[in-house]
UniProtKB/TrEMBL annotation:
<dbReference type="InterPro" id="IPR026898">
    <property type="entry name" value="PrsW"/>
</dbReference>
<keyword id="KW-1003">Cell membrane</keyword>
<feature type="transmembrane region" description="Helical">
    <location>
        <begin position="100"/>
        <end position="121"/>
    </location>
</feature>
<keyword id="KW-0812">Transmembrane</keyword>
<dbReference type="GO" id="GO:0008233">
    <property type="term" value="F:peptidase activity"/>
</dbReference>
<keyword id="KW-0645">Protease</keyword>
<feature type="transmembrane region" description="Helical">
    <location>
        <begin position="69"/>
        <end position="88"/>
    </location>
</feature>
<keyword id="KW-0472">Membrane</keyword>
<feature type="transmembrane region" description="Helical">
    <location>
        <begin position="6"/>
        <end position="21"/>
    </location>
</feature>
<dbReference type="GO" id="GO:0006508">
    <property type="term" value="P:proteolysis"/>
</dbReference>
<keyword id="KW-0378">Hydrolase</keyword>
<comment type="function">
    <text>Involved in the degradation of specific anti-sigma factors.</text>
</comment>
<dbReference type="Pfam" id="PF13367">
    <property type="entry name" value="PrsW-protease"/>
</dbReference>
<feature type="transmembrane region" description="Helical">
    <location>
        <begin position="161"/>
        <end position="181"/>
    </location>
</feature>
<dbReference type="InterPro" id="IPR023596">
    <property type="entry name" value="Peptidase_PrsW_arch/bac"/>
</dbReference>
<feature type="transmembrane region" description="Helical">
    <location>
        <begin position="127"/>
        <end position="149"/>
    </location>
</feature>
<feature type="transmembrane region" description="Helical">
    <location>
        <begin position="187"/>
        <end position="204"/>
    </location>
</feature>
Length: 226
């Protein structure tokens, strides 16, 4: 069991380290990031409970609505809600790249618990596919969510409400597309490969943009102190 848990945790830890180490300008407090990860992990249980109840009670007549749309919407909404309520106004959310880190942390908290439960149920042979698809997609969707929240918090324009909405809408839309591809019966791999390549390209582009915004913020702060 310890081996299974270790295998299930490893992808999330590796992905978080990847995004954390890309921030060379500042060091975000690890305690706050750990708390955000724990929030995401705790979030797994009520989300799975709601998914189970809705499925058992057959609230939705179509399995597509249940497995594709409802699952995508509820997962991204609650991750977004945690960030808005507990992190967005936090004193340690003090630069644009922090949004990326907090988005990744809450998403990987959820993805790690989900991965542990899945691998313990279906075996270690599923670990590689889980690492490159669900776990990495959660991390990249967290990047997008955090990027738009970081941009909203430090934007000097009056469009931060639209940006906060984008922080929810963009990951939700891409999550729906991911689930549509993954639940398709035939040839889903041929669609998933280009989708994941796009998701990595788009996510890393947002990481770069968040880093540039951080550099500009530090430059402005230096000018104000002079």
């Amino acid at each position: 069991m310890l081996i299974l848990i270790s295998v299930a945790i490893a992808p999330g830890l590796a992905l978080f380290c990847f995004f954390y180490l890309r921030n060379q300008m500042a060091t975000e407090p690890r305690k706050t990031l750990l708390q955000t990860f724990i929030y995401g992990a705790i979030l797994t249980f009520p989300i799975m409970f709601l998914q189970y109840v809705f499925k058992e009670e057959q609230v939705f007549s179509s399995p597509i609505i249940q497995d594709v749309f409802f699952s995508s919407v509820i997962e991204e909404f609650f991750k977004w809600l945690i960030l808005i309520l507990l992190i967005y106004h936090h004193v340690e959310f003090d630069d644009p790249y922090d949004g990326v880190l907090y988005g990744v942390a809450v998403s990987l908290g959820f993805a790690t618990i989900e991965n542990i439960m899945y691998i313990m149920s279906y075996g270690v042979h599923t670990a590689f596919l889980r690492a490159i698809l669900p776990v990495s997609s959660h991390a990249l969707l967290g990047v997008l969510m955090g990027y738009y929240l970081g941009k909203a918090k430090f934007s000097k324009m009056n469009n931060n409400y639209q940006l906060r909405f984008m922080a929810l809408f963009a990951p939700m839309l891409l999550h729906v597309l991911y689930n549509m591809i993954f639940t398709s019966q035939q040839n889903w791999v041929y669609f998933m490969i280009p989708f994941m390549l796009f998701l990595w390209w788009f996510g890393l582009r947002k990481v770069k943009q968040a880093h540039i915004a951080l550099v500009h913020l530090i430059a402005e702060q230096k000018k104000e102190r002079q």
